[in-house]
Amino acid sequence: MTTVLLPEHAGFRSGLENGQLCFPRCSDCGRFHWYPMTLCPHCRSSRIEWQAVAGRGHVYSFTVVRHAFDEEWRSALPYVVALIEFEDAPGVRLISNLVGIAPEAVRIGLSVVAQFEAKKRVVFRPVNA
Ligand SMILES: [Zn+2]
């Protein structure tokens, strides 16, 4: 399956290569943000660094995909696309896939943890799954 990462995702990509989930964090105000930006959206500082987080969070929202918009994904149907919030990166919400759970069992607030695939992709699975 294809994952598209743009130049501004360099810190995210190198984190995945090291089995870490990294998000941009402002060195001046200390707040995280996502999507990556050259200036902090909270205080306009340019002192942005990538910081690794634990990769634990919860489902903020989700949808179940039942139609193959891309033939590459047909064999995965139905699959869950979720918006994940993180315990140690407040303000960050990442879109990813949720695995290891039947789509009808997914609930908002479900506790999840990152699962790295081939050092270039991250998905999430329920804690204790
Ligand atoms: Zn800031």
Report on this model:
The chain is mostly beta strands. Helices cover 6% and strands 38% of the residues. It is built from one helix and seven strands; from the N terminus they run H-E-E-E-E-E-E-E. Strands 5-4-3-6-7 form a five-stranded antiparallel sheet, with no helix packed on it. A two-stranded antiparallel sheet has the order 1-2. It is globular and about 45 Å long. The relative contact order is 0.20. The model has no long low-confidence stretch (mean pLDDT 93). Bound molecules: zinc ion. The site of zinc ion (ZN) has 8 residues, from loops.
Bound molecule kinds, no repeats:
zinc ion
The pLDDT mean sits at: 93
Radius of gyration: 15 Å
Regarding quaternary structure, how should these chains be classified?
Answer: single chain
Derived from helix and strand composition plus strand pairing, the structural class reads mainly beta
Gap between N and C termini: 23 Å
Unreliable stretches (pLDDT < 50, length at least 5) are none
Strand content: 35-45%
Largest sheet: 5 strands, antiparallel
What characteristic shape results from the CA principal axes? globular
Share of residues in helices: under 10%
The count of helical stretches stands at: 1
Tally of strands:
7
Order of helices and strands: HEEEEEEE
List the helices and strands and how they pair.
Elements: H1 10-17, E1 21-26, E2 48-53, E3 56-65, E4 79-86, E5 93-98, E6 111-117, E7 121-126
Antiparallel strand pairs: 1-2, 3-4, 3-6, 4-5, 6-7
Bound molecules: zinc ion.
